[in-house]
Design goal:
The protein is an alpha/beta fold and 446 residues long. Helices cover 30% and strands 26% of the residues. Strands 3-2-1-4-5-6 form a 6-stranded parallel sheet, with helices on both faces. It has a 6-stranded parallel sheet with strand order 14-13-12-15-16-17, with helices on both faces. Strands 7-8-11-9-10 form a 5-stranded antiparallel sheet. It is globular, with a radius of gyration of 23 Å.
Length: 446
C-alpha cells in the first residue's frame, strides 16, 4: 500500500509514526527542510521537499500510484488544493484537514467528492467529540462504544483501596463471576502490559477493559472508585474547541464557559443557546471562586495555552472538581496526566492522526480507537467467511501474544469470550493490540 502525506508537522509526524509499523510505502511532502529531516530520521519514509500544490512535486511523489493521499499541512487552502490535484492525478482515497467549521457543517449539502475530496478532517471537532466521551462516563479515563453500544472499552486507574491491589489476575477472577468484562491491558508508568494469569495488580496501575455496557459499574467498583454524576460543567476557553464542546454538552448538562476576549464572548452568547457565557480571565482564582468552581462536577480547559490548561485544571482539582480535562500541545505530556493530577490530557493533532489512521486498516475494520498515552489500538473487525479467525476455539488460534480478543457481538447478543469460544462469520470482534501485533492480527480477519 502506498501512502502520500502532505505536511510533516505534528499531524503528519504522528500519522507516520502510526504507519511505521505497517510495512507501507510512505512519502512525506513538505516545504520545510528541517521538518522533513526530523521525520526521516525517525521513520522509514521518503521525504520530498516541495509544495504539495505543485504538479511536479506530486508527480515526483508518484501520487498517481498512491492508495491514499493525506493533506494535513497547517494551511486549509493547501490541503484542499492538494486533495483535488492528487485525485485528478490518480490518487485513491484523498483526505484533507480543514480549520473552518463551515466545511464540516456543509459536507452533507455540498458534494466534496465531486471536487475529488473523499474525507474532511476537522481536528477541533474531533477533540470536542472526545471531550464529550470523557464527560459521559466521568469515572473512567477512557470510554468508547463498539457495535452500537453492545460492547464498551473502558480505562480506569486503580486506587490504593482497590480490592485487587496486590492480587494476581487469576486470584481476582472472583470479582467477575458473571463474565461481564475482560481485562485487556495494564499500563504501568510508560509500559503497556498484556495481562496474564500471574500478572499482579499495583496501586496506580491503569487498567483497560472490554465489557458489556452493564459491566462498567463493576469495573468502577473494582478500581476502588465511585461513579461520578456530572451535572455542572465549567469550560475555560471560548475558541473553536470550547464552543463546539459547549454545543455538544449544553443540552444535557448545566454549562458555563469563561472567555477573556469580549468579542468572542459576544459571539458565544449568540451561538450557544443554553450555556452561560462569562467574560473574564480563568487564571484568576478569585473569578473561579466567584463562579462557584467548587460546585462544578467537571472542568474542561481548552485555551490555546497548554500551561494555562494544566494549571487551571489542577486548581479545579484543589477545589474539589471530580473530573478535569486539559488540552495540551505537547504530546509527550499525555503520559503524565495521572502523575500530575489532571484526569485526562488530550491533544487535537494526535486525535486527528488517529482518526485518519483508521482508513489504513485492513480486514474490514468497522471501528477503531486509540488510547491516550498508550501506544496501542482497539479495533472492531467484521469477520469474513473463510478467514483464519473462524472454525477454531480461541485457545487454538495461536493469536499474537501482544494482542487479545476482548469481545464478540453476534446478532443482538454480545459475549466476553474465553478460550473455548468459536468465532463465526459475520461476528463483530473487538481486539486490543500493541502496534507490533496489528499486522498479524489483521491477517486473521482477511
Amino acid at each position: 500500500m502506498k501512502i502520500v502525506i502532505a505536511g510533516a508537522g505534528e499531524v503528519g509526524f504522528h500519522l507516520a509514526d502510526m504507519l511505521s509499523h505497517e510495512s507501507l510505502d510512505i512519502t512525506v511532502i513538505d516545504i520545510d527542510e528541517e521538518k522533513l529531516k526530523n521525520i526521516e530520521s525517525h521513520f522509514d519514509v521518503l521525504a520530498l521537499e516541495g509544495s504539495s500544490t505543485s504538479l511536479t512535486t506530486l508527480k515526483n511523489a508518484r501520487v498517481h500510484a498512491a492508495d491514499m493521499l493525506v493533506a494535513v499541512t497547517d494551511s486549509e487552502e493547501v490541503n484542499i488544493a492538494t486533495a483535488i490535484l492528487g485525485k485528478k492525478l490518480g490518487a485513491g482515497r484523498t483526505i484533507a484537514r480543514v480549520n473552518n467549521p463551515e466545511f464540516i457543517q456543509e459536507k452533507d449539502h455540498f458534494d466534496f467528492h465531486a471536487l475529488g475530496i473523499d474525507n474532511l478532517i476537522f481536528p477541533e471537532e474531533l477533540a470536542a467529540k472526545e471531550i464529550k466521551r470523557l464527560i459521559k462516563r466521568a469515572s473512567l479515563s477512557e470510554s468508547f462504544d463498539f457495535a452500537e453500544g453492545k460492547l464498551t472499552f473502558s480505562g480506569i486507574r486503580l486506587t490504593p483501596d482497590s480490592p485487587v491491589v496486590g492480587k494476581s489476575v487469576a486470584e481476582s477472577a472472583g470479582f467477575n463471576p458473571e463474565l461481564n468484562f475482560m481485562l485487556v491491558a495494564i499500563r504501568r508508568g510508560t509500559e503497556t502490559i498484556i495481562p496474564r494469569g500471574n500478572s499482579v495488580f499495583k496501586a496506580d496501575d491503569h487498567l483497560y477493559f472490554i465489557s458489556h455496557p452493564e459491566g462498567v459499574k463493576y469495573i468502577i467498583a473494582l478500581s476502588g472508585r465511585k461513579e461520578i454524576e456530572v451535572r455542572d460543567i465549567m469550560i475555560l476557553g471560548g475558541g473553536k474547541i470550547g464552543k463546539m464542546t459547549a454545543q455538544r454538552l449544553e443540552q444535557k448538562y448545566r454549562v458555563k464557559i469563561l472567555e477573556m476576549d469580549r468579542e468572542k464572548c459576544e459571539d458565544l452568547t449568540e451561538e450557544l443557546l443554553n450555556t452561560l457565557v462569562i467574560h473574564g480571565d480563568g487564571r484568576d482564582v478569585n473569578l473561579l471562586e466567584e463562579e462557584n468552581i467548587s460546585s462544578m462536577d467537571a472542568f474542561i480547559a481548552v485555551t490555546g495555552d497548554s500551561e494555562t490548561n494544566i494549571i487551571t485544571s489542577l486548581v479545579a482539582k484543589k477545589y474539589g472538581v471530580k473530573k478535569t480535562v486539559a488540552l495540551v500541545e505537547n504530546i509527550d505530556l499525555l503520559n503524565l496526566s495521572q502523575d500530575i493530577g489532571v484526569d485526562a490530557l488530550i491533544n487535537k493533532k494526535l486525535i486527528a492522526a488517529s482518526y485518519i489512521f483508521r482508513y489504513v486498516r485492513e480486514g474490514d475494520v468497522n471501528a477503531l480507537t486509540s488510547i491516550h498515552g498508550v501506544n496501542a489500538e482497539v479495533l472492531e473487525f467484521i469477520v469474513k467467511p473463510r478467514s483464519r479467525i473462524t472454525n477454531r476455539m480461541i485457545r487454538d488460534l495461536h493469536f499474537p501474544k501482544k494482542a487479545i480478543i476482548g469481545g464478540v457481538v453476534r446478532g443482538l447478543e454480545s459475549y466476553i469470550p474465553r478460550g473455548d469460544f468459536k468465532i463465526e462469520p459475520r461476528d463483530r470482534v473487538v481486539v486490543f493490540a500493541l502496534p507490533e501485533a496489528i499486522h498479524e492480527v489483521e491477517s486473521f480477519f482477511k
